[in-house]
Design a protein that fits this description.
DnaJ_domain; mainly alpha; 0% strand; Helix Hairpins; 204 residues; YALI0D21428p; single chain
Length: 204
């Protein structure tokens, strides 16, 4: 009986741990892969692999009834992919480095200040990194929007030019198609004019 209770309690404890981790992952800032995996910047590739494996096994949708597990698992997987890609990780590390520099400058500290190792600074560092990541994402989206708008303007311009060319071709075709009619009308006009002159001569 005691063993059954212990087993049930252990299972409940595991489920609780899964639920807590799922909520933590879903609440982590999406643009910061380190935060999603609960890692510090600068960690090596092996640590990233081990952490991802441990957390993915913990929250895997097949191991829990939590309906939010698939979303958390997907977010965790994307974060791991970012950190395993050299260029993506380099960009993220660059933002972290910029955030650290900005904070040190704002606080008027030196790079050797012992307070840089404290939990308070680490927390502020993550928040500053979050701010810079948001700014970068906004600039990126604005650039994409501007590019799309420019492409839209170019497309409309090309369509207008194409429409003008089509209109000119149709007008040219209409002019050419009406040539015989115009020539016939002119001949008819000349003919009628000639008859009138002859009649005036006869009357005179």
């Amino acid at each position: 009986m005691s063993e059954n209770i212990d087993s049930i309690l252990q299972q409940e404890d595991k489920e609780h741990s899964r639920d807590v981790e799922i909520e933590r992952i879903l609440g982590a800032f999406q643009l910061d892969a380190y935060s999603v995996l609960a890692l510090q910047p600068g960690c090596n590739t092996e640590v990233i692999k081990q952490t991802y494996r441990k957390k993915s096994l913990l929250i895997h949708p097949d191991k829990t009834k939590n309906t939010r597990a698939p979303d958390a698992f997907d977010k965790l997987k994307k974060a791991e992919k970012v950190l395993q890609d050299d260029k993506s990780r380099e960009r993220l590390d660059s933002v972290y480095a910029d955030a650290r520099t900005v904070l040190i400058r704002e606080k008027k500290w030196t790079i050797h200040d012992e307070r840089l190792k404290g939990e308070e600074f680490l927390s502020e560092w993550k928040e500053k990194t979050k701010d810079l990541l948001i700014e970068r994402e906004l600039r990126k989206r604005l650039a994409v929007k501007a590019k799309m708008e420019e492409e839209g303007r170019m497309k409309r311009k090309l369509e207008e030019e194409q429409e003008e060319r089509m209109k000119a071709r149709l007008e040219q075709k209409a002019w050419e198609d009406g040539r015989d009619t115009r020539v016939g009308n002119w001949r008819e006009f000349k003919k009628k004019g000639g008859d009138k002159k002859k009649k005036r001569k006869l009357l005179g």
